[in-house]
Fold these 3 entries.
Entry 1:
Amino acid sequence: MMKKNRVLSIFFLFIVQFLIAQKIEIKPYLQDAEPTSIKIMWQTDFGEESIVYWGLTENKLKNKTIGTAFDINFTDKRVHEVTITGLKRFTTYYYKVQTGKAVSKIYQFKTPPFAGESKKINLVAMSDMQYDSQYPTKFTEIVEEGVLAYFDKNYKGDISDNLAMVVIPGDLVVTGSVFSQWQEHFFKQSEKLFSNVPVYPVPGNHERNSDFYFKYFSLPKNGSPEYAEHWWFKDYANTRIIGLDSNNGYRDIKEQLEWLKELLDKTAKNDKIDFVFAQLHHPHKSELWIPGEEDFSGKVVKLLETFSKVSNKPSLHFFGHTHGYSRGQSKEHKHLWVNVASAGGAIDNWGEFEGRDYDEFTVTQDEYGFVLATIDTDKENPSFTLKRISRGNNVKFRDNELRDSITVFKKTIQPKTPILVDLDLKNHPIHKMFIKANDFKSDKKDAFHAASNWQVSTTADFSKIIYNSWKQHENWYYKENRQKNDDLTDEIIDRKLSNETIYYVRVRYRDQFLNWSDWSVVKYFKTVK
């Protein structure tokens, strides 16, 4: 009897599912776009059928591709994945998905160009959109009133025509092991964007290495085979985007840094790649929240700096974890440090946590927003421009306000070598020394004086440096510009020097494109008793 009842129950369930139409719970979203292929994923409440209809026009979706479905959370719910191949590069396509009686609306996407092609592209970087109970739809606001509204206002055409991809350095949800958060807090709030633009995340600490993260995303599988999708890379035109895992349990695995070093060595020799954008969750340094810093990220920074020095190819790393925006730069290299949070998680307000004014950072803001990267593949001198688009914070609202911007060119055009003035062997006081150089000059159009590096040494070869000052043209920290009205052409050495000692001085200038001049001709002075 029990066996008979079980058979009847299964039969009854089959009939009910046959009569009841499936429901698309997570609308289609795009993954792993290539010039000739793309992956489309979605979730239904039940049903194995995974079909995508697609074509070059909205009215003629004459192509049909069948994919696979797999369980999620050990229920009838199914995640569907369809890989479309045979596409043309840099071409717009239209598509819709179907599972049983559930059919989506029509969306569109645009395939990437081949690596090395001269196509100007945009990408958006944002992170830490985990649910905040005080502002439960903040991520929706960032997507719809932020990214989509910004592109609608500033660009012509569909979002897929103007935005190549979105990268997310972690913390997509509050607790990655809680199934419901993925649908309600991440996919539902971003569905109007990721149905048309591919998304490439890396895991943050809030993902908790959850199976849900790895089931919901189909990322490039070109990292270490035994750690598939924990680290990977994606090429788009002249830029290589690298995803890394800075979380506990993976940041200590030596294979990740070994893989990164080998990849960067190959990238340095790849003539089709001009720039490297890496993304990982944890910061190396954080002005708003020191406890969030990780040594692993510092190791990544050193590898990227070495890559840029060897190859003359600028690089950057996007990160999150700290809920605010920061933009800095390495002292000796064309490498940017960019915190792209917060896209939803509660802001780390100034003074709320332990912070520090680091020399590397030029701007730090406790605000919501996203970063727009525009990559110009100009053959003469490729460049990329970063713009911080702000939504303000809980005290001051900002409607997609441009709050920071920087452009970096691949080709180095050095500023003119500065000349030290008013410095000779006359006796000088030991407690305070004023040094001065000439005005900034450069052959680079629109270049201005963005930084100075002053050094004082007890040896002419600067092997024993006793004073090393690196200052930017601005330093926004704790809501004020600490460099306001500071003339970068002079420096006051206000530390005690030794009696009757000869000191050697030199200076170099940097423009806003991260180009350093050569060091000035060395001059020297002697202190009195």
Entry 2:
Amino acid sequence: MTGSSPSLSAEQGRPAVLAFALLRGAVAAGLGVGSIAVLVLALWISSPASDSSPGGALHAAAGLWLIAHGAELIRADTLSGVPAPVGLVPLLLAVVPVWLVHRAARDVLVPEEGRPVPSAAGAFAMVVTGYLLVGAAVAYYGRGGPLSVHLPSLLFPAALVVAGAAAAGVWTAAGRPVGPPPSWAPVSLHEALARGRFREQAGTVCRTAAAGVSVLLGGGALLVAVALMWHAHPAQESFVRLAGDWAGRVSVFLLALVLVPNAAVWGAAYGLGPGFALGTASTVTPLAFSGRPALPGFPLLAALPAEGPGTVLNWSAVAVPVAAGATVAWFTVRRAAPPGAAREDAWSPRETALAAALAAVGCGAGTAVLAAAAGGPLGTRALAEFGPVWWLTGAAALAWTALLGVPGALLLRAWRLREPGASTDEEGEAAGNAEPVPASVLVPVSVSAPAPVHEATSRASYGSDRRWWLWSGRRGGGDAAGAAPGSEPDAASAGAPASRPAPAAAASTPVAPPAARLSVPDRDESFEPYDFLPTDPWHERTARPEGAGPSGNS
């Protein structure tokens, strides 16, 4: 439904375009509340012992949709008769409205044939207005039900969440630019944004902070999964006790499913050290489970550790923030000093440390926001505090990632930019230690004038290296060693006086590596010609008339 839109001509002007954006925001809100209402009605219909009317199910659906935006609900039917607040937001359920409003704001700015595109500010304002109008209608409808909304929470954080998702959609439609700052911003900020290195560093900081938060959430989810396996029997008993029929069990399972991200945040807060509160008189940390907890019966709460001091297994949860700090260091150095980068192309130690520190700040801020959303009150007395304390969790995430990420990034950068040691490869040693071969021990390559290059190379393609070794080992002249049977002796060798032996060091002189020799195209692979010609007195004697030079050519 959000993908299809009516065709508007350019003559209809700005009001029609803005009305279309308003409609897109209202449709996005209607899809969100409608999807939750369909699910709640399906569970209500399938329940064999339902004690409420369809209106009660719709009121419950309206309350779930509002709490998914962060609004706080008031539960009227309590045992004590005192209305109790419900502020625990199911984070997985919050993904649906956030994605819908983000998509609506993004699609309004996508150019389509036959429809003009509004301005970014107009699209943002109209989409948010249309969405909030539907939200206000839903809040008014749910005020007489068992779950009514606390009105101040509609502005903060519910309206703020909608505005943030719409702003992200507008930014995505524009290509996610890092535009120029406002005119009142300092000149230094304008100059910094104009530099390419600043943009690269800013992107690296954002990606590194997101990676650190992801590792914390993944580690927290792993802690919860291990604890549930360890306490599988109490969790199963709690699940069966809450619901006796299959419809009720499906409802409990879906509720536990949408609270899994909350449990992951709680696990991350536990590994970071501050832990979380189970009421006003109980706190759970790796060091101890203290106080008297006020626990409602729920399967995820069965994964809590045993009361009392922590053990080595509880202390092992510190591996989660350690992994997050190592991730911050790794993602920073991956851009600061890529593998194989030269020292002058890498970031300086100051830039590397600053990027890692800013990423730690971003990781702490993201963790604090998630901790604030993952907890909330479930009552007025003992359950007034339930979940992690956001500022303690954020401060702990900042401390862990900064203390481990900044030194780790500097050490990893120094390791990657270290001076390379001597190569142990035999070819590398031969190439690095080889000395120039004296020209007096080399045999010139004979090339006939009328013969083409391929013919000349094919005649010397057999045994060229062997002739060099045999000839270089001779003490005096003689017939050409390694020549083909029946061939005439080399005139150059015959003309060389026998009293002039080759130098003794010539036999032990290392050979130039094959890579340094001349490569002739379309030749036999065994042929490896020399890339230089000898210029010693022996070559000069072969060029005299009485010398029998090869084919009369020099």
Entry 3:
Amino acid sequence: MTITSAPVSAPPRTTTLFRAAGAALIVAFRGEDLPEVLHWGADPGAVDEAALAALDAASARQVTASALDEAWPLTVLPTERDGWQGRPGIAGTVDGAPLLPGWRVESVESDDRGFALRACADGLVLESALRFDAAGILRVDHRVENAGDAVVHLAALDATLPVPARASELLDLAGRWTRERSPQRRPVAMGSHARDSRRGRTGHDAPTLTVVGTPGFDDRTGEAWAVHLAWSGDAVYRTDRLAEGRNVLGAGELLRTGEIVLSAGEAFAAPTAWFAWSDRGLDGISSRFHRSLRARPGHPRTPRPVVLNTWEAVYFDHELEPLIALADAAAEVGVERFVLDDGWFLARRSDGAGLGDWAVDPAVWPEGLHALVDHVRARGMGFGLWVEPEMVNPDSDLARSHPEWVLAPSDRATRTWRHQHVLDVARPEVAEWLLATLGALLDEYPIEYLKWDHNRDLLEAVHAGRAGVDAQTRAVYALLDELRRRHPHVEIESCSSGGARVDLGILERTDRVWASDTNDPLERTRIQRWTELLLPPELIGSHVGPTQAHTTDRVTDLRFRIATTLFASAGIETDITRFTADERAQLAEWIAEYKRLRSLMHTGELLHDAVADEGAALTGVVSEDRAHALYRLTREATGEWAVPPALRLPGLDPSRTYRVEVVRALTTGHLLDMRPVPWVAEGSVTLPGSLLSTVGVRTPLLAPASALVLEATAVA
């Protein structure tokens, strides 16, 4: 969180504008007092110091009836001491007394994009940083150190920013297993409102982001402000809309009672909160997050390999010959990575036993995994393996030999979930054992990829006599970091009974997330759309599943299942040895097209737009130079139109001309029109980008659970 610049010798009294990528932050620094954010949102352009000083004066608060007798500031860490009566930015106790620090700013460092400060109060040291990255994401960090002798119990350390009163509508996400990231909207209500997540992991029902915006903000229009907490444990997302002050949007780690206790010299760093502003609706929010993530030095680069995962092909039924046949079929259609899922280790014939015993089961694999791994690699594919290191079955050698390693109260057993408990990774001996055990596998086999699963919530998570979610989460991060340091060639996917650990904390040390355990394409289309609000397609795993989805029993067409994987890190999760020759040909054709187009999809700007025909949705991606674009129109339900309205193609350069073609390999074969749309039958149409984005083109009548994929290429 340190910002490199020359430190200011004395705390300044000035109003400063910070900016990046069209977003701005205006901050009033007031000497030894904590600064106040006057504005976060649109860049006002060229303004001088005199204008900023005048703005500060014009923003001064009045004193109203039945209120404090003096005007008070909304600081970067608001508390009752300031006059703030919403949810406090910091809370806790000092030797049992309420924590109400009177901060004195000692130093400020700044550059064009933000600032970092150091403040002290009553034996505490606060380090805070607010700084834009090149994409216009404003990252907020707070760290508190106990520099005194008293014991500090910390109850909250939230990141907050003010938002204008016109941000009166709220969007966040909810869900459950196989229905993750379901959107919900409501007005921003008066009062302080907190959305708590107490799952011990991010959760299937995680808010993921909280977005507030102008009424009716949608995919492409409206002003919006959003926050995401880069954290994989308990969290709180909050809004405050009080009659006495400005609206506040924020997020922070949810701290259980007694969880964070700071003795002399100890410190607590809150998870980073990522804030994004947009004047282009939700796609503008996504664009900032995607550009920020893609700028990371370790961001997974295209081409992202096509994966075949064995779970829905064989489940726990592991036999060498069928898996060899599956690998052969995968190689023939163009798969680039073969992942052996659950069932390869000791006594693992169901989900009731074996977790924790990470040794290849000689009863199933008498010569180890070498024969399968060697065959997979001989067919030109990389090899991956499923693991669930943070968990243990009671029916396992590990649980029997180390019952004390379970994350639980010391005086009783806890409830199982999917027949498993959680290992206390914060115990150093547990972390070292996991590093050694996983390291032995990675040393013995040429594994390039781990599917790292986490199949339960944390309940009664007690470590060393205290609430243990924070310690567990940080220990898992440290475990992943050290494993990657020792094995830098290994990619890791974050899976958590599907999409229950999708956040930017886990993605600092993993390369892909499994968005959901459902491969039903209708469900997946919706889940992926809202996962895309935070993540670019290359980080979202999506696989072609079986004809009949095992989570919904719904039967869908192969081409629709193929189209659903398009804007993602694509793969297959079904037994393709049972596919007909025609179905395998369709898979091969899809994979060839995916390989041709993935550079566009994994580097371009993702787009969504409202479709006038009810029951349909549009997803697109446009290259940075606006020369190439791809669009997928999916139909989830029947619409009101027998002749669908023209479809607009957003994001194109209005000054260029484009040839628009149907990508047959990715489009449903059967359409409902008695006679086809003429240009579709002819194969292409050429039009200016100005007409394609404002007027649009006629599209076929699609049946529910079908898709149309269009490719636009600039020709002039």
